[in-house]
Specification:
single chain; alpha+beta; 15% helix; 5-stranded antiparallel beta sheet; globular
């Protein structure tokens, strides 16, 4: 019987590969910036998670925004605008109550939206701007964050 000796170098390479692969296949927290740094928005955003990250064309991606409010919110609208480098490429409106449970009580809540990006979506750097208004059209918050779409589509990897 032949004994295989476990090399510390082999172990290091094996576990290092997980450290490289895992961050690229799961969720990512993105840096969120307020549209107006001097504004005192009633809704405070504490974080954003994009899952999976990196975003792949033709695959479902979920954007989850953690926030808090000092006042109950009975309803409202989310407006999403996306720019590709400097070009405005996409805009959509959502009923706030279809993205979170309404009414929103005082305290913490999560706004979550899932979407499949078309296979023709160009790879590169994008900026998303999200504005939230209440039922009376009062602005509750406005944030921006950057994300990227990979240069290699998942279908291309499967063919390799």
């Amino acid at each position: 019987m032949t004994m295989v000796q476990f090399s510390p170098l082999l172990a290091l390479i094996f576990f290092s590969s997980f450290l490289i692969i895992i961050p690229f296949t799961f969720a990512k927290s993105a840096d969120v910036h307020y549209c107006n740094k001097k504004a005192n928005y009633p809704v405070k955003v504490s974080g954003l998670e994009i899952n999976p990250y990196p975003i792949s064309r033709g695959k479902n991606t979920t954007f989850s925004i953690a926030a808090s409010t000092e006042e109950p919110i009975s309803g409202g609208k989310l407006t999403v605008d996306v720019t590709y480098f400097i070009f405005h490429v996409y805009s959509e409106d959502h009923n706030l109550c279809s993205e979170t449970s309404c009414p929103v009580s005082e305290g913490e809540f999560v706004v979550s939206h899932s979407q499949v990006l078309p296979g023709i979506t160009p790879p590169g750097s994008y900026t998303l701007k999200m504005t939230m208004v209440d039922a009376n059209k009062k602005q509750l918050t406005c944030i921006t964050f950057d994300f990227s779409i990979g240069f290699v589509a998942p279908e291309s990897l499967a063919d390799a």
